[in-house]
Amino acid sequence: MASNAQCSPCSEGGKSMVAFRFCSDCEEMLCKDCVVYHRKFKATKSHHLIEASSIKTTIPLTNKYCTIHKDIFLNFYCVNHDKVCCRACIPKNHQSCKDVIPLEVASQSIKGSYLLADMRSVWKNMNETLCGFDKDQQNNIIDLEKMENNILQQIANIKIDFLKEIEKLEQNFKTDLAVVKSKNLIKSIKTKSSLSNLTALVQKKNQALEFLKENGPNTQLFLELKEQVTEYPEVSKRVQELISSSQRTILKLKEPANMVIPSIGSLIELKEPCNVRYNPVHLSIFRKENEIQLLPGAAHHITNCVATMDNKLLLCNFEYGVNKIYIYTDCKDYATEICLEDQPYAISIFLGTNEAVVTLPNLAYLQLVNTRKMEKSGRVNIDKGCYAVTTFEDTIIVGKHDEIQFLKKDSTTIHIFTLCNMGLIKSVYYFHKEHDIVCRSKHVLRRIKLDFNKSRRCEVHESLQLAKFKDKVQKLSNVEKPCEMTSKYHIGSDVIYQYNISGEGGLAVDEDECLYVCNKSSNQIIRLAKDGLCEVIFSRDVCLENPYSIFFSHNFTKFVISDTLGFIHVFNVKRY
């Protein structure tokens, strides 16, 4: 920012004073005297003031007023509608909403939120794509010049043998070539102009986030993010249309078949897609849809839940002596229950079928359940102590103490993997494309690359290399903001990443194969990318208490959280 910026309040009063600080709350430049007054008054003394000389980019201006009630500040956030509102909007549009909280509360953790991280990735990805596209367009212009020179050289070589006859044809050809070149240059220049405008917009959005992250108040950053989420689909569409409509021009000379021809060749104009591909970064916005209170008066310890293709919710109640699976229709209404011989801990549905499998840790078998009739069917014999379960096609994968077992419905064991120092595995998820498996015990979360070419009983050892990196293993307990993955190491090419965790809880995987980890002790749900980098997705800020089990619906449009207080929280997932 220019060092001679003027003080905004003084300028309004007819004075010309050099600005000394910038108030990001008031969005005004302040001189030294105004800074003193700003820090005295109760209404402004908590505002964020920064050195005017330290501002290197254009200051982002965020709309702080309600679009309906133009003169009222946006001071509240409705969790149920995922919408910022003013005090006048609440009686009319949010009177029945349970979770309408002050904007200051909603934005407390915004600088460490997944939305900020995702939004920054969105603009970074788009900016990199546009910069690559700009470079590609510049190369196309240079290539047009080179191709023209090459063709002209070819003409010059032909001209040696046909100098007299070719003179007139050469002039005609040069004219055609110039027209084609001019046409394509004009198109490329026009495209670059559109590209420049779009790049400037993307950089502006990205700079706004960076500035507000470092210097702005949480409320302003929150508002900016909400505004950018709304703008993102349109900008993304413009980028997609600009890139997909662009074509590279290839100019070549088609030489004559023999020398006795009335022409020196014809100009071939080929079109091919540009070398840049735009792969948008997807945004997932979670909006609370409803909250289910389990049967009042009954004892509840919901350890796992899944949903069928027709949105029937199945809940495992691990409370001692209850021995039941509860069924809710449309993820909201109690329908019936299935009584079992012992406590059900985990459940997994065979995708595309009407069958599920349930673990009964105290019994020597797994229970199969018909999810259409909601009744018990067959059994799969196995040793006691199986807690975690997941399925892939017709294969069942269970977790025990330091062990993962693959088996069929007829009780035939396919593979057994021994995982040293893992403990009792309570949750498991299998990434079949990569042959990776994620296991969770009370204290460890580990992603492992499985080698099915090894012997029937494979051991994944905790070698000296793991002991060497003990101090680098990340902790997911009480995470206030996403931590950086510094413990990405390999043990015999088996372990991809590992985290220390605190307490039990479930796992879920979204459409992009990011892993979601439930952390009851810190009231958080954390998202892990494939490389192990983590971000807090849900926390106490969204009224989350003691979460235990989580899952996505089969089409990834709903995200369900069960807690230990007897509530089921259903979120609608909107993907941009």
From TrEMBL:
Gene3D superfamilies: Classic Zinc Finger. Residues 152-215 form a coiled coil. Keywords: Coiled coil, Metal-binding, Zinc, Zinc-finger. It comes from the Eukaryota. Residues 61-103 form the B box-type domain. GO terms for molecular function: zinc ion binding. This is B box-type domain-containing protein. The lineage of its organism: Eukaryota, Metazoa, Spiralia, Lophotrochozoa, Mollusca.
